[in-house]
Each structure stands twice: as C-alpha cells, then as structure tokens.
Amino acid sequence: MPEDVRRRFSKRLTGQAVAAYSGEIVWTRLSRAGWLLAQLCRLIGAPLPLEASGPAPAAVAVSEERRRGGQYWTRLYGRRRGHPQAIHSAKSFAGPTGLEEHIGRGFGMALTVRAEADALIFASDHYFWQLGGVRLRLPAWLAPGETVVTHQHLGHARFAFDLKVTHPRLGELVNQHGLFRDG
User: Cβ distance 118 to 98 under 8 Å?
Assistant: First the structure.
C-alpha cells in the first residue's frame, strides 16, 4: 500500500484537528432509479449526489467523532445551480464487519475493506437502521444494492474517489468519479 494512502487512513484526528482534501467531482451519473433513490434519501440526510453533473469543485473535511471513536466526514460538492450539496456521515470501527458508516436518521451500512496494490476498496456488506439499542438489518429487497467506494492512489498526495451503487435488478444507480489532493 502506498505511503500516502497509509498516512491518510491511519491518521488519528484528536481535539480540533481536521484533515482537508480539495479537488473536483469529474462526473456524477445517475440512472432514473438512482435519481429517484437520491431524492428519497433526502429524508435521511441526502447521502447520495442529488443530480448528474460534469466537473464541479469539491472539498472534504474529516474530524474526530469522539462518541464512537470514529470520524465525521463532510463532503461539499458544487452544483450547476443553487447552493453546493453537503453530505455528512460518521464512520466508526464497530458492528459485525468492524467498520460502519452512519448516514442519518439511524440508517447506516456495514462495510468490508480490501486493499489492492494502489487502492482501498470499501464495499457494503449490509444496510441497517438503529434506534438506541434496537438494530434492524434491512432486508435485501429494501436495500439500494451494493455500494462500493474506491480510494485509488495517484501519487504526489493525489487520489481518485469512485462511488458506485449497483442494484441487482435495476443495474447501476449511481456512478461518481472525483479527483482530490491532500489539503
């Protein structure tokens, strides 16, 4: 694994420390079903891009999430019109796979991680809803399909970010490609 990637993902943020990354979303593609899913997900905090787009400025900030010992992620994506879209989530080292991403209103996904020569690949294992001590695994028919996020090393403190959501029957719902650099 390249040193840039190791440093980025092993960084322990404490106190007021923030890791910042800037770049651009090169493209976002949404199928009709993907667009509908993104609009419905506004009810839980809009964790998906809301519209298809071409090149747009983007910034990501990562800070400590003290309660679960994880990290808060805030992504700010420029849009063709209107205000930028802000996407918030919290990652924690918990659950059956050891890594979870909480996206809002109790919804989240358990993630698996695998390393390749120049990339880390995060894939959804399952989705869940949690309220207090009650946790329910969402049935496959209610889930959006498989979510895969790839963080690929490009060298010189630069990386590519790819998000794909693929439904078993509806096919590719979301495909987003971004290029970032360490802040």
Answer: no
